[in-house]
Amino acid sequence: MSQQQLFIKTHQRGAVEITQKVNDIIVIQGHLVELCHVFVAHSSASLMITGSGSEDSDILLDVEDYLQKIVLDANPKYRHNNEDDFDMSGHIRTILTGEAKTVPIIDNKLGLGQFQGLFLYEHRAGENTRKLIITLS
Questions:
Q1: How far apart are CA 132 and CA 3, in angstroms?
Q2: What does the longest C-alpha to C-alpha distance in the chain come to?
Q3: Three-state DSSP class for residue 95
């Protein structure tokens, strides 16, 4: 088993594909591993596996449009709003989309489907640096 940290800088709300960055870590480890567990150590960012943005960027736009409709920013009913209008909505989005993914490793890379990608999903506006913990076993 091995563990690495990966830091991703985000520039706005939305999804950033991290498939290749995680695959690079798998290759560097240089030994046979069967599973990759990725955890994002933040309460306003999450992980998702969906259609790769390079195949159809509308997928990511549709996901964001949907979440904006069901999880409103600056909802006056939110009690928690310590940081900004994205604060509580970011927490709810993370709960809905999840902070961790476990993916089998096949041929020394993530065993994703042909059109799938692994994405860090930023739920806040502005620049943020997100820490991901990659565990290979």
A1: 10
A2: 52
A3: helix
The pTM for the full model equals 0.91
Q: How far apart are CA 40 and CA 6, in angstroms?
A: 9
Residues in the chain: 137
pLDDT tens for 17-60 read: 999 999 999 998 867 789 999 999 999 999 999 997 666 778 99
Phi, psi of 30 (to 5 degrees): 65, 15
- Please state the φ and ψ torsions of residue 72, each to the nearest 5 degrees: -80, 140
Q: How far apart are CA 45 and CA 120, in angstroms?
A: 7
Express each pLDDT in 75-86 by its tens digit.
Answer: 888 888 777 777
As given in the structure block, the two tokens for residue 106 are: 């096949």
